[in-house]
Amino acid sequence: MIILKYSLAIFCLLLTGCSFFSSQKEKENPALTEYEYTTDDMQSGEESATVLPPPPKRSAMALYMDSLGLVNVTDLDSSLVVKLMYTQADNFTGEVLYDNLTEAYLHPDAAYALIEAQKALKELHPSYSLIIYDAARPMSVQKKMWNVVKGTSKYKYVSNPNRGVGLHNYGLAVDISIQDSLGQPLPMGTQVDHLGVEAHITNENELVHNGKMSETERQNRILLRKVMKAAGFRALPSEWWQFQLLQPGRRPEEIQRNTINEYHHITPNINNL
Questions:
Q1: How many other C-beta atoms are found inside a 10 Å radius of the C-beta of residue 122?
Q2: CA–CA separation, 37 vs 152, rounded Å?
Q3: Is residue 55 part of a domain?
Q4: DSSP secondary-structure letter at 185?
Q5: Could you tell me if residue 132 is inside a domain?
Q6: Continuous H helices in 125-241
Q7: What is the dihedral angle through the alpha carbons of 6, 7, 12, 18, rounded to the nearest 10 degrees?
Q8: Are 121 and 252 members of one domain?
């Protein structure tokens, strides 16, 4: 009997201890015992998943550019800023020239070179970005531009479409500048599309000396030329914003001729753009 009493007492003590430690574990890890995933929880998670919007539709002109083998530059690098100046009347013609094109297209070689220029700029100024004002230009727009300047002193700033096709028309030229961290274009001495000596890059020291351009504006132009040259582009002397893709040992007219040959087999109607 005495052994039985002691055995019962020991059993009660062990039972009490187990209950105590079990309750302590529940307090330390309440989530393990208080919550279990249910089918409703999984369905709720699925319903709260973010639904991505469909990609924006491209215009008929953009689709035609695609068919020519030209490249939408923002498909390669979304950090590039595109603000085509001829989508508004605030340009030297005073007219809206692009009513169905908002994307910047370039020849593949020029497009990939531009990505390298953006990288070069980001290495120097991570918060800056290249901003594109014009890229591949339809011949129909080129003709409108020429009609505005022909017979005036400004004719030398626009390629005569009757004498052949310019590099813009094959996506080998780009009008471009630099945008700062606040989304503002860096001052360059003139507005883009200014047709005059103030836009020339050959007399910038004189412009600064005569007070027609600040030293900061000249340095901004130099920065733009630096990153574009590093990627294989050459600046147009009469327009600080225009750059043409050059390849080592090849003149611009050689690139143009070869490009025309490349695109004739893609579309015989490129002059109708």
A1: 16
A2: 78
A3: no
A4: B
A5: yes
A6: 139-149, 204-209, 215-230
A7: 130
A8: yes
The CA-based dihedral angle spanning residues 189, 179, 132, 197, taken in that order and rounded to the nearest 10 degrees: 0
Helix (H) / strand (E) element for 12: namely helix 2-28
174 vs 165: CA distance, rounded Å: 15
User: What letter does residue 87 receive in the DSSP assignment?
Assistant: G
Measured CA angle at 245 (ends 244, 247), to 5 deg: 140
Question: Is position 53 within any domain?
Answer: no
- 66 part of a folded domain: yes
Q: Judge if 160 and 211 occupy the same domain.
A: yes
For the stretch 219-250, pLDDT in tens is 999 999 999 999 999 999 999 999 999 764 55
The answer to whether residues 21 and 146 belong to one domain is: no
Interatomic CA distance for residues 169 and 106, integer angstroms: 9
pTM of the model: 0.71
Q: What is the pLDDT of residue 192?
A: 94
Task: Count the domains in the chain.
Answer: 2
**Which structural domain range is residue 19 located in?**
2-47
Amino acid at 80: L
Q: Are residues 65 and 147 in the same domain?
A: yes
DSSP state of 55: P
Q: Residue 70 sits in a domain of what CATH number?
A: 3.30.1380.10
